[in-house]
Write a structure and sequence with these properties.
The chain is of the alpha+beta class. It has helices spanning about 10-30, 35-40, 55-65, 90-105, 115-145, 155-185, 190-220, 225-260, 265-295, and strands spanning about 40-45, 70-75, 80-85, 110-115.
Length: about 300
């Protein structure tokens, strides 16, 4: 039997370093927001038959369309361009499309999205509210569900520990996106929020499985064995199930990462990092924190 709870200081130190680095990255570099959150236009199109270069398209947007803040990227796999710039009217959109068509006859619009700054700010605020409400709701539910396992650790501490593990599992992939935004100009959008919500759902599911086994063992062994021994046994009993279940998901995500659509690459990467940290936290953080919380008055 692995002594997981006995080495909790090691696991806590590793998590503190990772979460600390993620928070520093977010605080220093922040997130590079897409037009969906900060307002602006995203225009995806192709002109494969004319084979324009990225520099040609960038220059055309700046010099001919007079969109001096335009940033153009190229997806070589699908031979498509993505231009991001400030919001424009529908009339300007049609005029610019006609100019692009005259310059490159094979021009084909794939998507066009223009969002005002006020709408983008509203979407960002609603996304943050959704994350906070989900975290609080999950924590309160777990505190209620484990009310019968209130000794030697109060049931509300199960909810508090779950909240901390969710913060752990969300902050690490969020920090990664902040790093990628600074060095690789990766922008976050609603897909990023969806990925974090999925990570939280998977993480809390795995944590509840371990906590539920702790509750079952407490009903049988309470007073017969030390609490730490009960928790450690519970983690070991669910270890194989947690790893096997998580590994199947990780394999699917790895497949999507390497052969999936390019547009979902960072979405899948966020899921992969979040799921991996969720596995780690449910085994090495959540249950050892129960032991650390034993006897604490706060």
């Amino acid at each position: 039997m692995l002594n997981i709870t006995g080495h909790r200081k090691i696991w806590f130190t590793i998590s503190a370093i990772l979460v600390g680095a993620a928070l520093v990255a977010i605080g220093v570099w922040r997130f590079r927001e897409s037009a969906e959150f900060k307002g602006g236009t995203q225009w995806e199109f192709s002109a494969a038959a004319d084979a324009p270069t990225l520099s040609d398209v960038q220059a055309f947007f700046v010099n001919n369309l007079k969109l001096t803040d335009a940033a153009v990227s190229y997806d070589a796999q699908h031979q498509t361009f993505l231009a991001t710039f400030s919001s424009i009217s529908e009339a300007a959109h049609q005029t610019d499309a006609a100019l692009l068509k005259s310059r490159w006859p094979s021009f084909a619009e794939l998507s066009f999205q223009s969002i005002s700054p006020s709408v983008g700010a509203s979407l960002r605020t609603n996304a943050l509210i959704a994350l906070v409400l989900v975290i609080i709701g999950i924590s309160l539910y777990i505190a209620y569900a484990f009310r019968k396992a209130s000794r030697p650790v109060s049931s509300w501490k199960y909810g508090w520990i779950t909240l901390l593990t969710l913060f752990h599992d969300v902050s690490i992939p969020a920090g990664l996106l902040a790093v990628l935004g600074h060095f690789a100009h990766v922008e976050i959008n609603s897909d990023f929020i969806v990925a974090l919500l999925v990570v939280m759902g998977f993480s809390v599911h795995d944590t509840i499985v371990v906590f539920d086994r702790v509750r079952e063992n407490l009903l049988v062994r309470r007073g017969k064995e030390p609490f730490e021994q009960i928790v450690n046994a519970s983690v070991n009993q669910t270890l194989a199930r947690s790893i096997n279940t998580s590994l199947t998901l990780i394999l699917v995500l790895l497949a999507l990462l390497f052969v999936g659509p390019a547009g979902l690459w960072y979405f899948v990467l966020t899921l992969l990092v979040g799921v991996t940290t969720g596995i780690y936290s449910s085994i090495f953080i959540a249950s050892p924190m129960l032991v650390a919380a034993e006897g604490k008055k706060v």
